[in-house]
Amino acid sequence: MTAQQPGEATLAALSGRELIKGHGAGNDFLLLIDPDCQVSLSASDVAAVCNRHTGIGADGFVRVVHTAALPGSEAFAAAMPEAKWFMDYYNADGSVARTCGNASWLFAHVLDAEGLCQLPDGASITIGTRGGARTITRTGQLWAVDMGPAALTRPDGAVADVNLEGWDTLVEVPGLEGQRAALSINMPNPHTVVALADEAELDTVNFAGLTDSDTLELLPVPYEGTNLEVVVPLGADEEDGVAVGRARVRILERGVGEAQSCGTGCCAVAVALHEWEGEDAPQDYLLEVPGGSVGVHVGADPWAPGATVLLTGPTQIIGRISLA
Question: Which of 19, 184, 238, 294 could form a disulfide with 313 if both were Cys (CB 3.0 to 4.6 A apart)?
């Protein structure tokens, strides 16, 4: 029997390939530019390279690919010909994800930096994701992505009527006593949002050692897993005559553990806050996450037909890594 280095076999598909490392508000990613979809990726490849001990390390992995070249995207390519590029996104554990807001910012930034698409200030691009088309706009040093509509999950076996109570799930949050009421939202990734009483409670939450919400006690159990967001509302300020809701957020992301940020999670939090605050709730939110600040515009009624959620924040390319 021949000894093998950890990750040696599962990194073979990426051997000789250059990866771009970057982040959006601390949520970090590895990007492979593979326009013609020539690399045969597996879940184990992605998990190995995203591993922070034996790989390079990242919260997620993105293949930058032509929409027409990605197997299974033929119908989408025909319906959305303007989306020439597709964000083929994977969680750090190798599982396939529908979309990612912070990765979208970095995706557009890389397209511009690599000369694949020119995006000066004010320019927009529409890309494909498994959650649908996403339009990303450069606004100075920030990027804004239209994340599409929010939707109430309405889980089977809900323990409360969301229309009457504003929540549907009970969660035992690590580090806190008892069960906490939570609201389940699709963005389109699944999210479970819990409001806490104050910042002391938020700081007491203990996500150490957790890599997935599957290890948590949720009632009902989400059938496809969920991200967990815990939030403390901090009131609202006025900016240029517009009310901006503020909050601190911590996030337990599927396949990652505690994350510095999560775009779809921040959108879910802002939508939940708007729902809980009721009439006259702010349409804009500034959320403080461990990785920085993220802006979310939910509009007057995020549940209305045709409504979409807009996510704004910073992104940065850190470097390039060539795998041996």
Answer: 294
